[in-house]
Structure formats: C-alpha cells, structure tokens
Amino acid sequence: MEQTLTVDALRDRVEGIFRHAGMNAIQAAALSRVITAGERDGCKSHGVYRIEGVLRTLKAGKVLGTAEPELDGGSDSAIVRVNARGGFSNPAFELGLPVLAARAKRLGLAALVVNDCTHFAALWPEVEAVTDHGLATMVMCPSYATVAPAGGKRPLLGTNPFAFGWPRTGRAPYVFDFATSVAARGEIELHRRAGKPLPKGWAIDAEGQPTTDPEAALAGAMLPFGGHKGSAIGTMIELLAGVMIGDLTSPEVLDFLGSTTLAPFHGELILALSPEKFTAGREGDPFARAELLFEAIQGQGARLPSQRRFAARAKAEAEGITLSDSEIAQLERFESLGLNAVA
C-alpha cells in the first residue's frame, strides 16, 4: 500500500539508510537532502531510485563514505577549489558554496572546482543554492562514456549534464538542467524496469543500429540531443569540467569504474556570476530587465523551465511525498540490510 511521508520524514529515513551503511554525518546528510529534493520535486529518476546506486558504489569501494571534503582557502583568486577526497560531490559543493558566492559578489565572477568526487544527482540543487545568493550560475560535469558522438557508433561521451540559473526576487529562480544526451541514463533504466519501450531516436544498440529496447540501449549507446549540436556541447563539457580542471573525462571514468552500474567518479565545475557587477555603469536593473523577458515568454503561452518541478514541490511541501508499495518496501529493505541489500 502506498504511503505518504512529510519531506522531513523522508529525508530522515534516507539519511538513516546511509548512516546504517557506514557513511559519516557529512556525507549522509548532504546525500539525503539532494535525494529527497528529487523526490519532492517529482524527479523520480533522481529520487529514492538513486539510493541503490549509492549503496552499490559504496560497497564496491569506489567512493569513500567517510570522506571529509577539504577547501583550498589559501588563495584569493576567482578559482575556489574543494577536494572531495574520494567522497560524494554534494558535501564538497556545500563546503565551497559560501566562498564561491563571496568571491563572485566581490570579483564579478568566480568558479568552484570540485575534484575527486562521485556524482549521482541532478545539478539543479547546486544551481538553486547559488541563485539563492543573488548570482547567476552555470554548472556542468562529465559522467561515464555512454553516449555516442554524432555520427559515431560507440559510447565515448557522458550524458554530461549542463544547468543554468538566474535569480528572481521573491520567486523561484529561472532554472534549466538537462543531459546533453537525448535522455538521462536514469530514464532509460526506469523504462527497463517498467518494461516500456524507448521513444525512437534515444539510443542505438551494440552494432550501432537504432533501438527502442532499453536492454539493447544500455548495452549500446545513447544519442546526443540535437545531433551534432548536443555532441559539441557534450564535448565542451568534457573539456571544461574534465580536462581543464585536471579531472577525469567520461572514457577515463568508465575505465576507472569498469561498470556503468556504479555512480561515476570525476569532477564538477560551478561558475557564479554577479549581474550587478557585469552591468555596473550601464543603465537599467538587470533583474527587472530579466523579468520583462520572462513575462514576454509567458505572454506567448510558453512555460518557463522547472515550472512543473516547482509546482510539484509546493504540492509535496503542503501534502507530503507519496511513495509506491515497491518504493516503501525497498526503503525498508535498505533500512534492514544496509550494504547487504545490494550486490
């Protein structure tokens, strides 16, 4: 029977699962926040579904659940560095965020580089955390090689998500967050679990032929969105959030893990920009001008990105988060068995 939990109650249960699995408070708390946020916002592919992958990666020894991220605070440059020290990206980001925001407000722009981290979550939680400081932001990271470049037949690029946010006074920010593949890998896995075929154009099989079979797609490669355009953006992310920050590219991640069943190990790049600093000396309030643009978009009947997610959030905060029978059973299994619940 399905069950409805408050946002806080679900977060406490998820954090308890991770603590039971041997993770420290720093790692468990940050991960429980981002997983619960995914479920709260109706993003099922980044909600409690992700717990199993976290536990599997922890059990395989590919992530350190007791890591304490380390901030490089010795420089006053525009580049802020946090070494996740083999742990998850989320607590490393939380550690570096206040320094990133302060430097971006002072210098006009700043970058947070997170190295040596495992990443499994959506990027919009980081985006919203930066926009909460009144800053615009771009966030990106590689993944593991599961996407064929445009015209190619074998996995080479990652799903390589890219996200952007613009702060809005008194309302939710303008946010988009998307994989540079046609769909996130988690969406293909959800289709597989549900026994549903994929839409055409999502993937190719191991021979490079188009397929709608999720199993064949997982054994083959996903496709970039927009053909050569998505392929180019995915390559840009490999360069900026892999090569440029001295961390792993998607092919290197796959070599390191040896499997796509584990959460990927790489780096992350977060750019923060101050609209006030960039418009200094020019006429007009950048935030007021942005609102005119948003109003014009909506005035044509178009929807701003993330509006569905924000509506789901409001509903969940008022009415709670409803989980299915199988999701509740899985939570109980993780609570009981810990790491023994995964292969």
TrEMBL record:
Source species, domain of life: Bacteria
Claim: Acetylation is one of the keywords in the record: no
A family per Pfam: Ldh_2
Keywords: Oxidoreductase
SUPFAM superfamilies, alphabetized: L-sulfolactate dehydrogenase-like
Keyword Oxidoreductase among record annotations: yes
Homology family: Belongs to the LDH2/MDH2 oxidoreductase family.
PANTHER family noted in UniProt: MALATE DEHYDROGENASE, OXIDOREDUCTASE-RELATED
Annotated protein name in UniProt: Ldh family oxidoreductase
Organism: Paracoccus methylovorus
